[in-house]
Amino acid sequence: MISFRRAWPAMLLVILAAAPFATGNPFYQRVAALVVLAAISASAWNVIGGYAGQISFGHSIYFGIGAYASLLVFSKFGLPPIAGAPFGVLASFVVSLIVGPPTFRLRGHYFSMGTFAIAALAQILMLNWKFAGGAIGVMGPATPRSLADLLFRNSLPYYAIFLAVLILLLALTHLMQRSRMGFYLRAIGSGERAAESLGVPVQRYKLYALLISGAFTALAGSLYAVMIGFIDPASGFGVLISVNMVVIAALGGVGTLFGPLAGAIILVPLQEATNALLGGGGTGAAYIAYGLIIMLIARFSPGGLAEIWRLVFRKERGRAA
Amino acid sequence: MLLEAKGIVKAFGSFRAVDQADLVVAENELIGLIGPNGAGKSTFFNCLAGDTRPTAGTVRFRGMEMTGLSPDRHARRGLARTFQVPIVFAGMTVRENVMVGALLRHPHRRIAAAKADELLAFAGLAERAEMPVTALGTSGRKRLEIARALATEPKLLLLDEALAGLTSSEVEAAIALVERIHARGVTLIVVEHIMEVIHRLTRRVLVFHQGRVIAEGTPAEVTADPTVISAYLGRRRGRSA
């Protein structure tokens, strides 16, 4: 039983990694790439929102910064979009250092509202920033000039790149979870005052978590822009970008290693399927489902699918013992 | 002196919860802090532990000025505390809760886990180490908080009503635990309501009333003090209450 418990995430990963190559259907391949991309940003959100319990509704800032960084280095300097990713990550550090310390003084819902407001402000700024294309946005290269532009007709190369980043992020999160930082973040998330009394430098660890979380969210934004080749204030800084991360992580299980990935595997295909079935007019339909999912999680299983899994598993183990 | 608090004042608006309180603690003492509800004991505790910044006054601990420093700096310096209402880290096991404290001095996870197990055995929670912490009742949570605070290897431990809400047999076990902590060489300040406990545990008691220290001495001296009696029972006025 124990060996199965240790092995199942690895098995899941292998199946997940192989599945899109097995199908020749470009729609499925595209959905698979988007699943992994959403898993990256939700897993990144999970570091501060899940482990440290600071429910940010402002992570679209990081996503937008990463996305704009890649397409701006292309449109302004003619560099391949992916070259913007390091700049996006650097900018995310600056944002974390500026936004983190004041918002961390807010607790609970107030923190969520504070981050939400800052992200909304950022979107308005982008709408009016002429250099970054204002409301029109920025385009990527229309045709590949070299392989470095990472422009592929097929979604499989994107899928492979995204998967590599996701594995790196999950490996880092796994290490963090086992380290002092992991314990400290979880302690902060469930009892800030007690954590402080035990010598946890709360503000400092929250900032560490935000730096990591923001950097990987920015990277996800860069990868998104490289694949899609277009970004505007709504698709980079929109409120729904943040909400997506929160809902995906919450469905799978906040503060668990594989929760956000599980959430992405369920929600992204749902979203893509409703978009495909209902066409452009139906893009809102997925969010109706989101609302329902939020209510169901909040009412029946605040720990998300991970909690349900644990309950089922514990019962099995109890019977075996 | 291990701890010297001088002229501590904590005001909330015009209300002075703590009003010019002094406390000097020598190494290896076990001091009791008593007083009626709302006397300012917990607020005074919070000032000592860095949870609230006193409006006036200074706190020196192990020769260092601590006033205004954050609680985590206090913990690192060797001052630990428990809370009147235990705060446990839900989502963690009992052992992991104690590990959070142990990680302060032992950043390595394995060593911290061993340290946590040692303290869980000390606090009588060894067989519950693997349980989710939320499965513990009041008595268990109070002992867990003590184990967790001890895991930071404090020189001074502040226990805020560690015995309140326990059954009489649990109180016996808790008294024995406090005595064993003292025997480890940890200096203790204990806030307590139950007079019997204070009598048995401590040799020096401070009595708080309306934010001030109104009496100080051995438990026997203090309980015989007329100011203390009137603070608890009110003054005789014609018909006694």
| Largest sheet report of chain A | 2 strands, antiparallel
Q: What radius of gyration of chain A results from the CA coordinates?
A: 20 Å
Global structural class of chain A? mainly alpha
The second-level CATH architecture of the domain at 3-86 and 154-233 in chain B is 3-Layer(aba) Sandwich
The CATH fourth-level homologous superfamily of the domain at 3-86 and 154-233 in chain B: P-loop containing nucleotide triphosphate hydrolases
- Assembly type: heterodimer
In the sheet with the most strands of chain A, the strands line up as 1-2
List the secondary-structure elements of chain B in sequence, H or E.
Answer: EEEHEEHEHHHEHEHEEHH
End-to-end Cα distance of chain B, whole Å, is 42 Å
Cα-atom Rg of chain B, whole angstroms? 18 Å
Total domain modules of chain A: 1
- Total helices of chain B: the number is 9
* Name given to the CATH architecture of chain A: Orthogonal Bundle
Largest interface: which pair? A-B, 21 and 31 residues
Q: Classify the helix fraction of chain A into a percent range.
A: over 70%
Please estimate the helix content of chain B. 25-40%
Features:
heterodimer; A: 321 residues; mainly alpha; ABC transporter involved in vitamin B12 uptake, BtuC; 1% strand; B: 241 residues; alpha/beta; Rossmann fold; six-stranded mixed β-sheet; four-stranded antiparallel β-sheet; 10 strands
Topology:
The complex is a heterodimer of chains A (321) and B (241).
Chain A: H1 2-22, H2 26-51, H3 60-77, H4 85-103, H5 109-128, E1 138-139, H6 156-178, H7 180-190, H8 192-197, H9 202-228, E2 230-231, H10 233-237, H11 239-252, H12 259-278, H13 285-300, H14 304-320
Antiparallel strand pairs in A: 1-2
Helix pairs in contact in A: 2-6, 2-9, 2-11, 2-12, 3-4, 3-9, 4-9, 6-7, 7-9, 11-12, 12-13
Chain B: E1 3-12, E2 15-25, E3 30-34, H1 41-49, E4 56-61, E5 64-65, H2 71-77, E6 79-81, H3 94-102, H4 109-122, H5 138-150, E7 156-160, H6 168-183, E8 187-191, H7 195-201, E9 204-209, E10 212-217, H8 219-224, H9 226-233
Parallel strand pairs in B: 3-8, 3-9, 6-7, 7-8
Antiparallel strand pairs in B: 1-2, 1-4, 4-5, 9-10
Helix pairs in contact in B: 3-4, 3-5, 4-5
